[in-house]
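User: Here's a chain of 193 residues. Predict its fold as tokens.
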Amino acid sequence: MGAAQVAPALYRAGCRQFFIAHLNEGIALRPLIPDDAALHVLHGAHPGAEGEFVRHGLRPVLNSLQGKVLHTRSIAAGTSVGYAHSWTASRASRIATVAVGYADGYLRGLSNRGVAHCDGIALSLIGNISMDTLMVDITDLPDIRQDRAIRARVAMAVFGERAQWTKRSKCASSIPCVLPCSLASSRSIAAAG
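Assistant: Prediction complete.
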């Protein structure tokens, strides 16, 4: 039994909230159920797709996961960071500790493999992802942006329009649908809902 049969049956049974993974699934499902049912797209609106969400009455769920920069620190070449010292600086580096961890649903499999973004610049996640924090090498941010990050404790995107689900899931040896599910079951999403 496919979505074409299941969704209308669920609607008739009283369901008014539907969750799907991708935009194209939402577009296909929208004509099958009345407009008073909300269709939530877990992967969010990718850049340029915002109009499609409006046209089809879809709601993006997750466009990005951001964490505040808790502090920054300069380290010397040869210094190791994180649990089990799994990353060692090959040069003098500037490191930001960001308030996102595996308790927030960020997969630990992205340790030393993930990417964060600050002002559109891709930055490497370094060290093992811990329960409440992760570390980002901000050495390559221009000095003015490093200073702003220190002063404003800016939020850094660890998932979002530049950090697509498919790429992140491959890095974590997972599949794209696991990522929003892990985030949806996390304490941060639950607290926000």
